[in-house]
Amino acid sequence: MDRWEIGPDQPGSPAPADLIEKRRLSEFKTPALDGVITSEEVIGGVDCLVVSVLEPTSTLLHFHGGGFRLGWTRTWLNYASDIAIQANCRVVIPTYRLAPEFPYPAALRDALDVYDDLHASGIVVIGGDSAGGALAVSLAMMARKHSLTRPAGLVLISPWLDLSVTAKSYSDNSKSDAMFSESAAKEAAAAYLGATSEYDPIASPFHGDVVGLPSTIIFVSGSEVLLDDSINFARSLSDHGVVAELFVAENMPHIWPVILLDQDQTQDARKNIARFIQRVAI
Is the CATH number 3.40.50.1820 carried by domain 17-280? Predict the structure, then answer.
């Protein structure tokens, strides 16, 4: 029985050698800040990195980026520890299954299982960067569908929400975005979606129903190819009565609040994220 009603898992395929090498090279650990407790826990049957202050008042469930194909939780240690301290929360980062070995809906199923375990025991804000942003929004839509406790808010960093890869910013910012591109997006979308349509309203959540989603804060660079995903999604949320804050930074790379540790723009973004979490998690 498919508990989450998202269809059966699709057959996967082995990761090619170049992707395996990219995964290896992407496994770098950022420094955690003093004042947090870091642990590895199994939540909802999924391995998770947990970064927390001693007495957290809420949880940020954050899904890492990597085009649904790569990403290592400890790369997010600096970001997670900073947010945990500033927002007095714990941050949970799942090791969700990756494509092409595990196409959609495997990652979403993992996300749902983790959230199902967490939401029953306290206030949960959902977040994600890049492809993780899509998982965060998809999860919020599925929580609404299954009448689970609504997440307190959504924190999206350079989210990749429209897997049709048709936004004008792919061409407009092709020369200024060194981290992502139209060709990389199409390749990653194909690996993740398998036989699922790129317009599927859950797999590609820009095309889903946003009514009833929680308050959302979005950060994006004006120089990245995913600019239009953030602008268009923020507009859709506002048009449907959802409170949405959009911050557009100039001359910053993709997911800069995660990967640039010392820049003023990073500190500003993280402060805004922490304030947002404290505001909605009441």
Answer: yes
